[in-house]
Amino acid sequence: MPAACLPDHRTCEQARLSRDARFDGLFFTAVSSTGIYCRPVCPAPPAKAGNVTYYAAAAAAEAAGFRPCLRCRPELAPGAGTWRRGDEVLARALKLIDTGLLAEQPLSALAGRLAVGERQLRRLFAQRLGTSPIGVHGTRRLLFAKQLLTETGLPITEVALAAGFGSLRRFNTVFKDSYRMAPRELRKRELHQSAGDTLVLRLGYRPPYDFSAMLDFLRGRALPGVEHVDATSYARVVGPAASPGWLRVSAWPGGEHALRLQLRNIAASGLLAVVQRLRRMFDLDADPRAIADALNDDPRLRPLLGKRPGLRIPSGWDGFEIAIRAVIGQQVSVAAARTLTARLARAFGEPLAGPLHSDLHTHLFPTPQALAEADLAAIGLTRARAATLRTVARAVLEGRVDFDPGTALDTFVERWTALPGIGPWTAHYLALRGLGHPDAFPAEDLVLQRALANDGTRLRAGQLRQHAQAWRPWRGYAVLHLWKDAMPAASSPSPTASREALP
User: Is 65 left (phi over 0), alpha (psi -120 to 50) or beta?
Assistant: First the structure.
């Protein structure tokens, strides 16, 4: 069994026996006497060590003939957090698989997006995860189907569609062959949480997780009419405007290491994409232990990590939306940028025509088509800033820039800085919040330059980059810690003062 992505055997054993949630998703425990594989947090009595084999991925355990545990539910485990030194290609490959690339394209297309050979890609997966890219894709869609069968009342036909199966017969066959039960048998065993036409799903994470800090960040930038952030949740509308959908993310009650996702009017075929977007947006697959190990050696960061061990990178729902916000926010305060962006969204966003129309949710964020030739002077933007926004919109439409998760950081920055009006700071900010890239580092940021020095002086961008080399590949988390430390304490609204009712 390849052990490259596994903690050492002793650590796996200790984590399994203590049910250490910090290792959830970093490995899986397969028990030969039962034929079942589990998360390290499984509440079942621990199996004898001689019957246990450890796997780096659920797909590897399934390839070895094990089926997922019905108690700990491996489909709820967070991702393996493979952004470690030497794992960038693997991490990008897994992100592309998460987008469903292998559902419609061959393995050669995935290899081409990563600029590696197909044989090299197979070898990388075998060495690091003990399975193949196709195996990861297949396990991913089966586990998502298992979650939908367990937690929702969706018809099995829609579950099959949501999991990427074009045929119900094919779905039933694959599910039964893999899990030794038909989909309908699993549904009989479980009680789902969803009610009415609102679906409820668990989004698991690896603790610690500072959800309050995440909401604080998003609240200060929330766009009226498009999204709403109160003291306990984040909510927004998603297109199309003629039949809008709605989602809300809050903490799962009872202290479970998961967020609660409520969905309404989302097509079954789009459910997995929505879940993956939100996992990236709320940084649910981060590995806080690996991040702390890399950053703790820095005396400036050590106390910040101790103060906020669960700080995550707050990404955004849509890359283009983040790009527009970033350009508007160049050289202005967060509050001023939010005001201008809200004007732009109201002026050029499509009004909602569906049943979710309300005072809180009234329109969608503008599309690239809407802004490519728009007259932006009326909302108070400078001529140069308006020109940059139109340039960005055209570049996205023409495919010169994008938010492809398979793009290497240096390539992403190079493409974006080729656009007039986009400098290194903006490009790295887009990588941080548009891609959720853990190593994005806007060294030109004045707050960072002052915050690292922490003595009233300011480092130059080159000095800051040189100092930050030791933080790789987690520089993005250092950025969030330094930004947070430089901000005055935010006063959160009362949980009862602005609680949002379900639409």
Answer: left
User: Cα(88)–Cα(86) distance, rounded to whole angstroms?
Assistant: 6
Which among 419, 414, 417 is positioned nearest to 394, based on CA atoms? 419
pLDDT digit string (tens) for the chain, length 503 residues: 444 678 899 999 999 999 999 999 999 999 999 999 999 999 999 999 999 999 999 999 999 999 999 999 999 999 877 766 568 899 999 999 998 999 989 999 999 999 999 999 999 999 999 999 999 999 999 999 999 999 999 999 999 999 999 899 999 999 999 999 999 998 866 556 666 689 999 999 999 999 999 999 999 999 999 999 999 999 999 988 888 999 999 999 998 999 999 999 999 999 999 999 999 999 999 999 999 999 999 999 999 999 999 999 999 999 999 999 999 998 888 999 999 999 999 999 999 976 665 678 899 999 999 999 999 988 999 999 999 999 999 999 999 999 999 899 999 999 999 999 999 999 999 999 999 999 999 999 999 999 998 888 999 999 999 999 999 999 999 999 999 999 875 433 333 322 222 22
Q: Which one of the listed residues 38, 42, 69, 72 is annotated catalytic? A: 38
Categorise residue 469: left if φ over 0, alpha if ψ from -120 to 50, beta otherwise: alpha
pTM: 0.92
Place of tokens 């592309």: 96
The tokens 């602005």 sit on which residue?
A: 498
Contact 51, 32 (CB under 8 A): yes
8 A C-beta contact, residue 454 and residue 493 = no
Stated as kind and residue range, the H or E segment containing 38 is: strand 36-38
Q: What are phi and psi of 363, to 5 degrees?
A: -160, 165
Determine which one of 216, 230, 285, 445 is catalytic: 445
β-bridge mates for residue 227, sequence order: 236
Reported as type and span, the H/E element at residue 246 is: strand 245-251
CB 409 within 8 A of CB 431: yes
Query: Would residue 445 show up in a list of annotated catalytic residues for this protein?
Result: yes
Q: SS3 for 118?
A: helix
12 labelled catalytic:
no
- Name the nearest CA neighbour of 201 among 256, 151, 252: 151
Q: Give the whole-angstrom CA distance, residue 86 versus residue 274.
A: 29
